[in-house]
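Methods, example record. To illustrate the input and output format used throughout this study, we show the complete record for Bacterial mobilisation protein (MobC). The sequence lines were provided to the predictor; the line carrying structure tokens was produced by it.
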Amino acid sequence: MPSRRRLTLDERRAIVREAAKGVAAKELAAKHGITTRTVHYTLKRETDRRRDASHRSVTFSVTLTPEEAMAFDAVLTRHQIATRADGLRRLIRASNGVFQPDEHLAEELQGFRASLNRVGNNITQIAKRLNEAKQKGIAPAFGVASLDQIKGLAMFIRSFANEIDLLAQRRSKRMTLAANAALEELADGAD
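The corresponding predicted structure is encoded as:
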């Protein structure tokens, strides 16, 4: 079996030219000291390159803040991607693996929704008691237990907001890692 090596640009071009003339993949593999799989991969890559270089008819437009643009440019530079268009094109091609629904996030949000409903019910009950007392013209029964309940609700809402923030940060980190992995994989395959 031939050893694994990278083909030079001239070798790839020669394989494409010879294949276009009808030379079999097996012959090309033997001639260049590579596997037939490498020949097929080289031909597919050339087909993809030609398709990508052909007329593009769909335009994507996005408006960013200067900070977002600088951050995106830094990621592109880190992955040695020459232009923003190339970076966006690579992300779009890899988007099936990046933009997947997050079942874990959905489950956690469902739990938060139930907790928030309980808090809403408690607040409604407190407001109802205060309104009833006001309508009767009496001072509302607002003792230590009521104050403790309100403090507990306030602490829960603060904790709830922190949990949502942490959840969003974790999701963002996962998306960033997936996007970086897609860019690295595509940058490796762009040789």
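Annotations derived from this record:
The chain has a mean pLDDT of 77.
The chain has eight helices and no strands.
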